[in-house]
Amino acid sequence: MKRILIRSGMRPTNVYTAKDMYLKDRTGFNNGNLAYQYSIYRTLWNDDVEIHADGLSSNPNLADKINANYDLYIIPLADAFRDDFRPTLRNYTELIRRLKIPVVVTGVGLRANYEPQLDAGFAFDEDVTNFVKAVLEKSSQIGVRGQITADYLKKLGFNEGVDYRVIGCPSLYTFGRELKIRDVHLTENSSIAINASPISSEVAVQFLNRMIEMHKDYYFIPQHLDEFHLMFAGGPDILSDIPGYPTSLDHKYYQEGRVKYFTSMPSWFDFVKNIDFSIGSRLHGNVIPTIVGTPNISFVQDARMRELASYHALTHVTIDELESIDNVHDLLNKVDLKSAEKVQARNFDNYIDFLETNELDHIYKDDRNRKTAPLDELVQAIDFPASAEPITVLDASTMLERIKVTSNLLQERSDFKLRYHVNRVNDQLTQVKSSFSHERTEFKQKIAAHQEKNESIEKELERTTKKLQMSIDENQKMNAKIKHYRGTLNRKAVRVTLKIADSLANVRSKVTSR
Hints:
Layout (H helix, E strand, L loop, with lengths): L1 E5 L11 H6 L9 H12 L4 E5 L9 H7 L2 E3 L11 H13 L4 E2 L20 H12 L5 E3 L2 H9 L8 E3 L25 E4 L6 H13 L3 E3 L4 H9 L18 H4 L9 H9 L3 E4 L2 H10 L3 E5 L2 H10 L3 E3 H5 L4 H5 L8 H17 L16 H7 L15 H118 L1
Parallel strand pairs: 1-2, 1-3, 3-4, 5-6, 7-8, 7-9, 9-10, 10-11
Helix pairs in contact: 4-5
């Protein structure tokens, strides 16, 4: 059976309550990450594979353990090409370099302004380059979220269509090749899901706040972990410079108990299916409604959302466009709520081609129009908890119990973090010791080899010296013989010359006498 490791804090079949989530972050600070991770699991989950979560650890010292236990490592990422992710990106680069198994990145993107200055470059360019090179040594191609990220990698020297391809966000392919978005007819009684983040545009936040004055059946769905802490435990307050954003329990959303935070994708899916309309500036806050058929509109304010909204034809408006729109009914008249349906099949096929380029088995191998998956049956048999109630709507005794529980969990969470860091340091020390021992052994072997080589050279030098001395002795003997022969030859030459001269003299005297 093939064993696959996926970058994620939890598997889709794990059941975590609000208390569990309060104790330990299993989402990577943003529960929107669960969406694309769930899609990867569902697409690859089959009878002949066993899939595990890596706990969101990028520790390079785990390489040996991963090599020993897994056949494949899948790393789905969001906007990981950003400044504050650099340490983690470096860790992944080192980890991937140490791995001996295939590593496939099924989605990654650039975080930048709406109009990114790609020619100017970014502080993390070198980190991104090293990461991409490391991944390409372990797989055929990287999947990027949109054309802006594609253009960025091209600026770094990589080749589109060879080293990487645009695949969008895998969350859009969670339930297959087709999207069916319902019609919407908003009334005062319609149920609405709104979403935003602490860095959303003030224009977006003001629009949402005006909207809920007319539509009372609303729910605010935050995604950051610290907002879950605020909802569940009452604090601490979160940071945001945006006027009107809910940063404390004093805000209308919390006072009215209209806040939902989901600890699993099935519970999130079930809730959004029953909402009439979704709107806001969170990507996955509106992608999730899209894939379950709920009409929605996104507010796009940065490059990350811009490239995904463009690739997937997500129903959206820019912040500049939103400034001139007074209400949601005017907004609905300006957009096509079903635009994503029109590009889904093309994008899905491209995504499957990407998986096959990297030799990944998947559930759509025999039928790309398949609608059910092995994971579905497992999920349907599990009772996932719904969102916890905000602490503001609890009665006095339940509220005190919640405070007591969270206080104890807070200490346990602190202890957990401490143990985690201690264990990580110990792992690093063990790795250093092992590396040092290995290097010392190699050094000793090199010294022994050099000594043996030196001894061999010394013996060869001694033999050569002897040969040279023998050659010198032979040369000296030869020189003596040559000198002797020269002397002998000189004497013989004189005698021959005298003899010839005498003969010539005799001949001359004879001729004269005649």
